[in-house]
Amino acid sequence: MIKSDLFIINKIDLAPYVHANLDIMASDTKKFRGEKPTIFTNLQDGTGLAEVVAWLRKYALLDAK
């Protein structure tokens, strides 16, 4: 979590069912990662997918698009 270039929190749609608070997750992530990127995703409805793909294109594939 702390050292990764990109931190992805997936399955955010399930958070209410396991009593996970996404606001607390976001706060904790910011506290420990600072300005390093974090993306919350739900691949059932596509939430966050475009951001992950854009990050991968820019930083992993070095694509200027």
Compressed to H and E, one letter per element, the order equals EHEH
Number of domains: 1
Shape: flat
Distance between the termini: 27 Å
Provide a concise account of the structure shown:
The protein is α+β, with helices and mostly antiparallel strands and 65 residues long. The chain has one domain (7-60).
Task: Please give a structural write-up.
With 65 residues, the chain is an alpha+beta fold. It has one domain. Helices cover 37% and strands 9% of the residues. A two-stranded parallel sheet has the order 1-2.
Features:
65 residues, alpha+beta, two-stranded parallel ribbon, 9% strand, flat
What's the helix and strand layout?
Blueprint: E1 7-9, H1 22-33, E2 38-40, H2 49-60
Parallel strand pairs: 1-2
